Amino acid sequence: MPALTVARADGSTATLPVDVTLISETVSTVLESREGTPDRTVCVLWHRWLAGHLRLLCPIAVEQAPHWGDSKRTSLMEATVGAVTRALEDGLPAGRHAAYVHVQELARECRGLLGLVLDRPGGGQ
């Protein structure tokens, strides 16, 4: 099982079952250059995948924030988590084009959070 070692708020580390490769591949798939707009059913599937990844990454990033010792980076993470939470609460828009834009935005946020989680004191994966 793929895993990610993360810093905990209490100063310890924990190994979590996080498949960084799968998350990265999902983001790449959604953001891949393509002609036309995917069907809404495809966007529904991508939304489910991204929502799962984001719900996994957000708490990890929040817990790691104190270890960064960088208030700008912590503020960026907090803003990202807030934006992700609102976007997930709003759900997938009904229109095909709007749904596609929505999943692309979630994919970008996912990529950013993954970067924050991996780029921490002590290394990533």
* Helix-strand string: EEHHHH
Q: Order the strands across the largest sheet as they lie in space.
A: 1-2
Count of helix runs:
4
The coarse overall form would be elongated
Strand element count: 2
In percent, how helical is the residue content? Answer: 55-70%
Low-confidence spans = none
Task: Describe the largest sheet.
Answer: 2 strands, antiparallel
- Distance from N terminus to C terminus (CA atoms, Å) equals 13 Å
Radius of gyration: 15 Å
Average pLDDT reading: 87
Q: Supply the helix-strand structural class.
A: mainly alpha
What percent of residues are in strands? Answer: 5-15%
Task: Write up this protein.
By secondary structure, this protein is mainly alpha-helical. It has four helices and two strands, in the order ββαααα. The chain has a two-stranded antiparallel sheet with strand order 1-2. β1 and β2 form a beta hairpin. The longest helix has 29 residues, at 40-68. The model has no long low-confidence stretch (mean pLDDT 87).
